Amino acid sequence: MKPTITQIKEAARRYLKIVEWSDDDQCYVGSAPPLIGQSCHGKTEAEVIEQLQVIVEEWVGLLLVDGKPLPEGTTERRFSGKFVVRLSPEIHRKVALKAMARGESLNEFVSETLAQS
Predict the structure, then answer these.
(1) What pLDDT, in 10s, does the model give residues 40-63?
(2) Sheet harboring 36-42: ordered strands across?
(3) 62: helix, strand or coil
(4) 48 Cβ neighbours under 8 A, 6+ residues apart
(5) Which of 20, 50, 57, 64 could form a cystine bridge with 3, CB 3.0-4.6 A?
(6) φ, ψ at 9 (rounded to 5°)
(7) What percent of the chain has pLDDT over 90?
(8) For residues 36 and 54, what is the distance between their CA atoms, to the nearest angstrom?
(9) d(CA 81, CA 32)
(10) Is 27 exposed, middle or buried (0-12, 13-18, 19+ CB in 10 A)?
(11) Are 35 and 60 in contact (CB under 8 A)?
């Protein structure tokens, strides 16, 4: 059964649209993981988000028409605030010492460092 435009638009809303500046390309690029990677570019964020919306709807429509499952949506995904990172003992030691030197726990140091990225 062919999906309606409303069904396609509703399903497409479940995917976060990401627009980022690319120093390499000197323009904005758009993606909507896990549905599509970088798939459009433009001079302004507004231009790219407009293109991206159309592309996401097209991909969703194609998957629905083909009867293929859609990847899990990203707009409603919840995060626990925890994740595990594996690294070499040398890096672990270096980061732990930096945290101690600042009077912070390793968790505080890593959280603050990541927040600044």
Answers:
(1) 999 999 999 999 999 999 999 999
(2) 18-22, 27-32, 36-42
(3) helix
(4) 19, 28, 29, 30, 40, 41, 42
(5) 64
(6) -60, -40
(7) 87
(8) 12
(9) 22
(10) middle
(11) yes
User: N- to C-terminal Cα distance for the chain?
Assistant: 46
Angle formed at CA 76 by CA 72 and CA 77, multiple of 5 degrees: 65
Residue 100 and residue 86: Cα distance in Å, rounded? Answer: 20
- pTM as predicted: 0.69
Tokens describing residue 46: 């507004």
Longest dimension (CA), the chain: 63
Neighbours of 11 (CB within 10 A): 20
Cα–chain center distance at 55: 16
